[in-house]
Amino acid sequence: MTRGEVLDPKNLNVWLELNCLRRQIGNSRTMIFSVAQIVICWSCYMTSQLGDVICIGAPPCGNEAAAAAAMSW
């Protein structure tokens, strides 16, 4: 995504799909570090280019049973 495609990085829906099934859903407002903090840290060590992906981990599930079920694939 480009900067223009993201209206509000502080409130960005994120999800994980595996084999066309949505396994996790989250939002950037619930992350420990803001998108800005992650990009700043990233840019201290690497130069980003169009198409780069920053992998940051899984969004919170909010339900341990749902998390276990999502991992039982």
Can you describe this structure?
The protein is an alpha+beta fold and 73 residues long. The chain has one domain. It contains two helices and two strands. It has helices spanning 35-45, 64-70, and strands at residues 13-18, 21-27. It has a two-stranded antiparallel ribbon with strand order 1-2. A hairpin with a 2-residue loop joins strand 1 (13-18) and strand 2. It is globular and about 35 Å long. It starts with 12 loop residues before the first strand and ends with a helix. The mean pLDDT is 79.
Can you describe this structure in just a few lines?
This protein is α+β, with helices and mostly antiparallel strands and 73 residues long. 25% of the residues lie in helices and 18% in strands. The chain has one domain.
